[in-house]
Amino acid sequence: MAVMQIAILAYPGMTALDAIGPYEMLRGLPDAELRFVWHEPGPIVTDSGVLVLGATHSFEETAAPDIILVGGSIPATMSTAADEGALNWLRRAHQTTTWTTSVCSGSLILGAAGILRGKDATCHWAGQRVLSTFGANPQRDKRIVRDGKVITAAGVSAGLDLGLWLVGEIAGRARAEATQLCIEYDPRPPFDTGHMSKASARNKADAARMMTGMISARDAGAELVAGSKVMWTNVIDRVRSRSAAKP
Amino acid sequence: MAVMQIAILAYPGMTALDAIGPYEMLRGLPDAELRFVWHEPGPIVTDSGVLVLGATHSFEETAAPDIILVGGSIPATMSTAADEGALNWLRRAHQTTTWTTSVCSGSLILGAAGILRGKDATCHWAGQRVLSTFGANPQRDKRIVRDGKVITAAGVSAGLDLGLWLVGEIAGRARAEATQLCIEYDPRPPFDTGHMSKASARNKADAARMMTGMISARDAGAELVAGSKVMWTNVIDRVRSRSAAKP
């Protein structure tokens, strides 16, 4: 059996759990090679500013992964979605993947790469509106959305469900069940406000304030500029593809 | 309000999700300073051999954290439980913590430091028997066990529940509920074999085989040697404390 290469995008400002949840599920797969990819190998500071993860391989070294996983970020989703090197890698690698996947606002990065056009997809609840601007059909209430080989998951912790689901698809139900037992994934959250449909108005206001508080004024500015660029590029691409289609 | 220092033990061979689950819950706390501690700052290779995390501070720089969090490991729990420098730091720091916590087999490291003697505690299901040799009272079916300021959680993914629970204790229910919404922690595992009581005989055999497969022969040997040393030290300490107590 050939080794299955799993490439996790490791970018500055990423939310660690988005990547580490699925990583922990997938790493037990037989004959899998996991790697953390970015422009070049080296340390990546995550969005807390204190946790550093290592990118192990460059885009160039990772031309044809079997699986791509893109996690989200609070302060750097749009700046990554505006990173042409990252987008070009995603576009090229996606052509030959078995699965192209995202967690949380990682789907906006897939969207900016044009991978979600016409596809059912999901995202962190805060990003659903932006998702539709990339031509995706947001599936607001689903934890994991599959459209062909593209699998998108809801916010942060949904990566654990995505990862476990993928283990089942790749290695069969028995392996996934054993993985779930190894990781003792029998969640018992002490509260029950993890979905917008279960949250109070106060929970929603508090959560929005918390997320705003997690992004510096400088990063917020950079995200706004990058987001505008991504949106403009997206609109212009659509206009150009329409005019190119005319006789 | 004083800044609350949260020290997460970062050791070679650690299981990343054990630490990153609670980290992602705790990092949104107001006035909290998170750090990853080890003998010295620098890169730490986790148990997959491909994910590298950064230790940001040394034990020496972290004399009096408010919270300690110790995660588990497949190949290096016992070698860490035999590391006198780590144990001495845990013993000293524990004296002044507000909370001393563990996830998965991290409780065995707390146990080796003598922190669990006479305490209710839990662990990954595979470590429950060892837990009792440290004088703890294993609580096999609980996801999170509190005994005074010592909080121990079940295997790997239980760290998310531990982290969220701690946010509630530290910053109140409203903050915890908002954190849960931010992280969209509304788990929907695609299978239901995450607890020993829900797993089939085959699931259990498969999981045991998977975990054995995740540890190299060399690491398994080192763990056996370290484990024996830890157990012996533990027994001898008890004998010595009994004879010291005699008139």
Task: Give a nutshell description of this structure.
The structure is a homodimer of 247-residue chains. Chain A is an alpha/beta fold and 247 residues long.
Under the CATH scheme, the architecture of chain A is 3-Layer(aba) Sandwich
Query: Segments of chain A where pLDDT lies below 50 for 5+ residues?
Result: none
Distance between the termini of chain A: 48 Å
Based on CA atoms alone, the radius of gyration of chain A comes out at 18 Å
Q: Output mean pLDDT of chain A.
A: 94
What class would the helix/strand composition of chain A place it in? alpha/beta
What general outline of chain A do the C-alpha atoms trace?
Answer: globular
Number of domains of chain A: 1
Task: Give the oligomeric state of the chains in this entry, treating copies of one chain as homo and distinct chains as hetero.
Answer: homodimer
CATH homologous superfamily classification of chain A: Class I glutamine amidotransferase (GATase) domain
> Looking at CATH, which topology of chain A would you report?
Rossmann fold
Largest sheet of chain A: 7 strands, mixed
Instruction: Tell me which protein chains meet in the greatest interface and how many residues each side has.
Output: A-B, 72 and 72 residues
Strand order in the sheet with the most strands of chain A: 5-2-1-6-7-11-10
The succession of helices and strands of chain A, N to C, reads EHEEEEEHHEHEHEEEHHHH
Secondary structure: number of strands of chain A? 11
Strand content of chain A: 15-25%
Please write the CATH class name of chain A.
Answer: Alpha Beta
Percent helix of chain A, as a range, is 40-55%
